[in-house]
Amino acid sequence: MVLPMNFWLLFAVCMIVSAIGFKNYVWFISLGYGFSIAAEGLAMLILYREGLSLGTIVCCLIFIAYGCRLGGYLAYREFKMTSYNKNMKGEIKDGKTVPMGVKIAIWVTCAVLYVTQIAPVFYRLHNGSGTNVWTWIGAFVMLSGVVLESAADIQKNKAKKINPRRFVDTGLYRIVRCPNYLGEMIFWTGVLISGIGAVSGWQWIVVAIGYIGIIFVMFSGARRLEIRQDKNYGSDPEYQKYVTTVPILLPFIPLYSVKKHKWLVAEHKRVIVR
């Protein structure tokens, strides 16, 4: 299994962008995440400018829009939302105490995840597969995920402005307790779909690493959020009713809790807890 040179170039792009985490180690997986995906979308447009099709252009543009929106939102939350920072203070270790070896391990691991996540579109471009119906279906699902995730973030921000001490159970949060994570999973499922008919053989191993990796991260983030919300609202009878009647991550599927699954390690997933 030999990875193409352009794949390594995209990996280098992710390494460069996510290196912002050396300033604040959680940025490896917050600002570094969003802006790495956007940078990869732009890089693919440049690297494969001679072989682009309409469908692959659309997918790359969606990557750019998705990454800029997520990175911008996380940056706004990080620097402007003082209430968020107060609530999260103490949730994670001070980045200054994190050993350099750990930071490097997180940095490299994140870059590997980010580059494998976009692999379905990358291989469509690299293999010269053009556009087929799966490209458009995938692009539609990707856009649906972006809209859902964006709407969930907006609704939560509005609800917290009205009552910052109450858990959010309005709008999309009536259907599922982590609609932003659900939107994220839908987005990457769309990316996966977009590769059907283009990805072949061992290339699916690379695709699987990225897809399974981000799904694991979402469930890990949901576990961490559940633990934090139980701590903050566990004594509220309305909250107890809410968590036993509204699924945590997948709508209409009676999965109400993941906190007991300790293998869903979420110690370094503060970024995605939103």
Structure description:
This protein has 274 residues and is an all-alpha fold. The protein has one domain. Helix content is 65%, strand content 0%. It has ten helices and no strands. It has helices at 5-18, 31-47, 54-80, 82-88, 100-117, 119-126, 133-162, 179-194, 203-233, 237-245. Helix 1 crosses helix 5 (100-117). It is globular. It starts with a helix and ends in a 29-residue tail after the last helix. The model is unreliable at 266-273 (pLDDT under 50).
In this structure, how is the largest beta sheet organized?
none
Oligomeric nature of the chains:
single chain
Number of strands: 0
Strand coverage percent:
under 5%
- Structural class by SSE content: mainly alpha
- Helix/strand order, N-terminal first: HHHHHHHHHH
Low-confidence stretches: 266-273
Calculate Rg over CA atoms: 19 Å
Instruction: Report, as a whole number of angstroms, the end-to-end distance.
Output: 38 Å
Number of H- or I-type helical stretches: 10
Mean pLDDT: 91
Taken together, the total number of domains comes to 1
Overall 3D geometry? globular
Helix content: 55-70%
